[in-house]
Write a structure and sequence with these properties.
The complex is a heterodimer. Chain A contains two helices and ten strands. Chain A is mainly beta. In chain A, the strands form three sheets. In chain A, strands 1-2-3-6-7-8 form a six-stranded antiparallel sheet, with no helix packed on it. In chain A, strands 4-5 form a two-stranded antiparallel ribbon. A two-stranded antiparallel ribbon of chain A has the order 9-10. The longest helix of chain A is centred in the first third of the chain and has 22 residues. Chain A is globular, with a radius of gyration of 19 Å. Chain B is mostly beta strands. In chain B, strands 1, 2, 3, 4, 7, 8 and 9 form a seven-stranded antiparallel sheet that branches. The longest helix of chain B is centred in the first third of the chain and has 18 residues. The N terminus of chain B is likely disordered. Classes of the chains: A mainly beta, B mainly beta.
Chain lengths: 211, 187
């Protein structure tokens, strides 16, 4: 019973904290421009870094892989991991506004978005070797061009086009409502394939990745 | 009783919302962050100002103190701690390094700590892409090394980690509440 009660308490506090998030920004009150490289100046010894206004996040396929592994639901290796930072709409016009058409966009904020395949991946009949890439896109109104590039560990403001490896076009879907935080998610199609989904504002695009 | 009922309702609704499939990932309360050595490497890289290659990167999620007593309570003494929140903390070396006199091959590792009042035991473990320290397996340890705890005057509300240059190499610095530790890394 004590265990049950403490579990309840934990769940409840988690619940409350979820609620809190709806009412205030999840990160600190320090407003920094997501597009300014100056955001990430690392601290001198006596200073502690504040959380980023566009927080970093990580998605796996299989979805929630670390949790599956922790709960013993998988013994296999993960297939894919994406690390990106999540800018917010904050009432701005996003596409054809903050994110300009026909210009490379880092698919997030801060560092270039990183995608890692732990097995050989296939997208639109083209193979990508296991390893890390940066992924950016060139958005247009009705389709986005996704570009895999080898210029790893770079800030996302500039792309080195000479290091482009492969590119893929994907149609844009309009969705109802508006998504505040830029979101990348994996949606399972089968054990060995998933849609890598990109959502922000009223726009959704996806790349189907198979292993 | 009413409180218990309210708790129950709250918990159930949380479970329900958690279990709905197809839900988009929410913004995390303990946001993920990254630090590099050299510090700020990605920015230096695009400005052509990097004078050293990338040597290390740490990915971790940043819990907040929020009025709680952290060390000795929220983070219990003597237990393996994920050194952050959510997924276990990942440290990656882009070249071979030495920690505690031992050679560490380049690659990805999970970094844990056993926290005590005066000393932390830092643990480098080969089992990556995992959640918390719930499945920590000491058989996959690559290294254990002790580091002393320093007390700080400043209170760190949010847990922070960064790399600093030292006369002998680099230190990974970890700060939360009024505690700071440094893990020396020879590069």
């Amino acid at each position: 019973m004590r265990n049950f009660l403490s579990a309840l308490l934990i769940l409840t506090s988690a619940c409350i904290s979820c609620k809190e998030e709806n009412n205030k920004p999840a990160v600190a009150d320090v407003r920094t421009k997501a597009d300014s490289p100056a955001v990430k100046v690392l601290p001198p010894i006596t200073h502690y870094t504040v959380p980023d206004h566009s927080p970093m996040d990580m998605v796996y396929f299989p979805k929630d892989y670390p949790l599956l592994k922790m709960t013993g639901k998988t013994q296999a290796l993960p297939l894919m991991r994406v690390i990106y930072s999540r800018p917010q709409k904050e009432k701005r016009k996003i596409f054809d506004g903050l994110v300009q058409y026909d210009m490379p966009w880092r698919l997030g904020a801060n560092e270039a978005t990183e995608i890692e395949f732990f097995s050989t991946a296939t997208i639109q009949n083209k193979k990508l070797n296991p390893g890390r890439y940066i992924l950016y896109c060139i958005p247009q109104e009705t389709r986005w061009t996704f570009v895999f590039n080898s210029n790893l560990y770079s800030w996302g403001l500039e792309q080195n086009r000479q290091k482009d490896l492969l590119q893929f076009d994907a149609p844009v879907e309009k969705i109802n409502g508006s998504i505040e935080y830029f979101t990348i998610a994996t949606e399972k199609i089968s054990d060995k394939s998933a849609d890598l989904v990109f959502l922000w504002d009223d726009v959704k695009t996806k790349l189907t990745v198979s292993f | 009783m009413r409180k218990i009922l309210a708790l129950l309702v709250c918990s159930v609704s949380f479970l329900y919302s958690f279990s709905q499939s197809g839900k988009l990932p929410e913004v995390d309360k303990s946001p993920m962050d990254v630090s590099y050595y050299p510090a700020n490497y990605p920015v230096l890289k695009i400005q052509n100002k990097a004078t050293e290659p990338l040597i290390a990167r740490i990915l971790y999620s940043r819990p907040q103190k929020q009025g709680r007593k952290v060390f000795g309570e929220l983070v219990e003494y003597g237990k393996v701690w994920r050194l952050g929140a959510n997924e276990a903390t990942e440290i990656e070396f882009f070249k071979d390094v030495k920690i505690g006199g031992k050679k560490i091959a380049k690659g990805r590792y999970t970094l844990y700590a056993i926290v005590n009042e005066d000393i932390w035991t830092m643990i480098l473990n080969k089992d990556t892409d995992t959640w918390g320290a719930f499945k920590y397996d000491s058989k996959k340890d690559v290294l254990r090394t002790d580091v002393p705890v320093q007390k700080t005057n400043e209170i760190a509300e949010i847990m922070s980690m960064w790399f600093e240059k030292t006369p002998t190499g680099v230190s990974l610095v970890i700060a939360w509440e009024q505690v700071k530790v440094s893990l020396p890394i020879t590069i």
